[in-house]
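Help: why these numbers?

___
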Amino acid sequence: MPQEDDFNDIGMSEYPKINLNPLWIAVFTDILGFSILLPILPAILTNFNTNALVIGFLLSINAIFTVIFAPILGKLSDKYGRRPLLLISQAGTCVGFIILAFSTNIWIIFISRIIDGVFGGNFPIAKAIIGDAVPPKKRSIQMTNIGVCHTLASLAGPAIGGLLSIWGLFAPGIFAASLSGLTMIMTIFYIPETWTKEKRLKLKKERIQQNVHVKFSIRKNNEAFYLLIQFGFHTLSFFLYISSISLFAAVVFGFNAQQIGIYLMISGIFRVVIRFTIFKPILKKLGEINTLKVGLLSFVITFILLGFSRDPVSFMIILILVSFAASLTRGPFNSLISQSVSPKEQGIVNGYASSLDSFGQILGPLLGGLILYIFHPSMIGFTAGIFSLIAFVMIFNAGIYITIIKSRDRKAKET
C-alpha cells in the first residue's frame, strides 16, 4: 500500500491529521472486486450453464448500480459525515463478497455484484476524505496514490482469483470479504471524522451557485468537450478488452482459471515496471501529446493483433504490449483534460472523466458479451481496435491541442 506522506506538517489546523492507509486498502478492495472475477469468468460460464452475454451483463451490473448510488452516498457523506458512510460502504462490499463466496447459481452472483455496486462508494468517499484532510499543495500526491492502488489491485486481483479458483467461488469471495472486514476495523480505529458538523454547517449558498455556473461554462469549453469524447472512445475500447480477455483466452486457447490468472498477473507486473521505469523518460523526451499518440497507436496495433492471435506466445506478447500502451495513455489523458479547463473547473471536469470511466465499465462488458455470443472471439480485438483508432485519429485535431498548449504556457508564465 502507498505510504502516508508528510502532508500534515504544514501546521494548518483545518486539516485533521489522519492515517490514510485504511483508505488505500478500501480503494484496493473496491477495485479487487472486479479484477478478482476476471480469471474465473470462464468457470462461471461453464459451471452455471450460462453464456457470454450473461457474463457481460454480470460484469456491467456492478458499474450500473455504482453509477446510480455512488453520488447518493457522496451526498449523504456531505450531510452525515464521511466516516459513517465509509463504514456503510465497506460493510456493503463485505456482504457482497460473502454472498459471492456462497453462490450456488448465477442469480445469486448477480445479487452479490448488485449489493457491491449499491454500496460501492469507497472511491468517491475516499477522494472526499482526502479533500477534507489534505492541504491542496499535497493533495495531488495522495490522489496519485489512489492510482497506485488501482494498479496494484489490477495486478493482484487476477492472480488471487486464479490461484484460489481451485476452491470455486468460495475462496476468492472469503478472501475479499476478509479484506473488506479488515478495512472496517482499521476505519473504526484509525480514521476520525474529517467532515465534522461544524464544517457541514459552513456550506455556503455561494458555492452552490458557483458550481451551477461552472457546469454551464464547461459545456461551452470546446477543448474539454473534445478531449472527453476522445477519452470516452479510449475508455470504451479498454474496458471492452479487459472484460472480454478471459473468455477470449478460454475459448481460443482453452486456458483454465489458473492459466488466465498467471497471464494477467504477468501483464500487470509489466505495467507496473513500465510505469515506474521507462514512462517518465518517454514523457520527458516526447512530451504529453506525443506520448499519448504513441500510447493510443500502440493500442490500435495491439488490439488488431489480438484479432489474429492464435497461440499462447503471441497472446502473452499482446498482453505486454497492452500494458505498455496503458502506461502511456492514462496519465497524459488526465493531465491534458485537466489543462483544458480553469482551476475552478477541475472538480467538474474530473467528475465527467470519472463518469466516462463508469460508462466504459458498463458498455464495455455488455458489448464484449454480445460480440462473444454472436461472433468469433477475434472480433473483440478488431472492435476494440476501431474504438482506439477513433481516439488516435482525434489527436490530430491541431486546433484543439494548440489551444491547450497555449493555455498551459500562459498559466506557467502566471505562476
Observations:
- The domain at 205-415 is CATH 1.20.1250.20 (Growth Hormone; Chain: A;).
- The radius of gyration is 21 Å.
- Residues 1-13 have pLDDT under 50 and may be disordered.
